[in-house]
Design brief:
The chain is α+β, with helices and mostly antiparallel strands and 159 residues long. Among the domains are: 51 residues, OB fold (Dihydrolipoamide Acetyltransferase, E2P), CATH 2.40.50; 53 residues, Beta Barrel (OB fold (Dihydrolipoamide Acetyltransferase, E2P)). Helices cover 22% and strands 28% of the residues. It contains four helices and six strands, in the order βββααβββαα. Strands 1-2-3 form a three-stranded antiparallel β-sheet, with helices on one face. The chain is elongated and about 80 Å long. It comes from Lojkania enalia. Component of the NuA4 histone acetyltransferase complex. This is Chromo domain-containing protein. One of its GO terms (cellular component) is nucleus.
Length: 159
């Protein structure tokens, strides 16, 4: 990835949310001559940064220093993946099962009528909550076929 006078070798995070890149300068082959530079200092070598990001699977996320010890009840626990593209490959997208949904749907949350974006006609949709806590929207005609007992329970509870 040599361009002009530098090569991006690796990236590191200081823990304060800033990413530093290890730069090997052209003509300086010794490891001791490499420097760690923030992204702002490499604005003239964006092509090299993009090549480096492509080689590692995307732009690295800055890491913040984590507290040691027990989590506070006031702090929400968040986990953000380092690279969404890698996570997408590992975890395939969930979709409703084929056949009957009676045993997979926890309950029908609500039914609403809205304009179908494809046809422009008013269409009724059911919002389903699944046993795995996912919430999805489906045309009411489809839901009536896939889980009629859940729809009956919904209608009876809303009399």
């Amino acid at each position: 990835m040599s361009y002009g006078n530098l090569t991006a070798k690796s990236a590191s995070s200081l823990g304060q949310g800033e990413i530093l890149y290890e730069v090997k300068w052209q003509g300086y082959e010794a490891r001791k001559d490499r420097t760690w530079e923030p992204e702002d200092n490499l604005s003239g070598a964006l092509e090299i940064l993009h090549e480096y990001w492509d080689s590692i699977g995307g732009r690295p996320n800055p890491k913040t220093r984590k507290r040691k010890g027990r989590k506070s009840a006031a702090e929400p626990e968040t986990s953000t993946p380092v690279n969404d593209a890698k996570r997408a490959r590992k975890e395939k997208e969930w979709s409703p099962p084929p056949g009957s949904w009676e045993h997979d749907v926890a309950y029908v949350d609500t039914v609403e009528e809205s304009i179908d974006s494809k046809t422009g006609n008013p269409t009724r949709y059911a919002y389903l909550v699944w046993n795995n806590r996912r919430k999805t929207q489906h045309p009411l005609v489809h839901v009536n076929q896939k889980c009629p007992q859940k729809m009956l329970a919904y209608y009876e509870s809303h009399l």
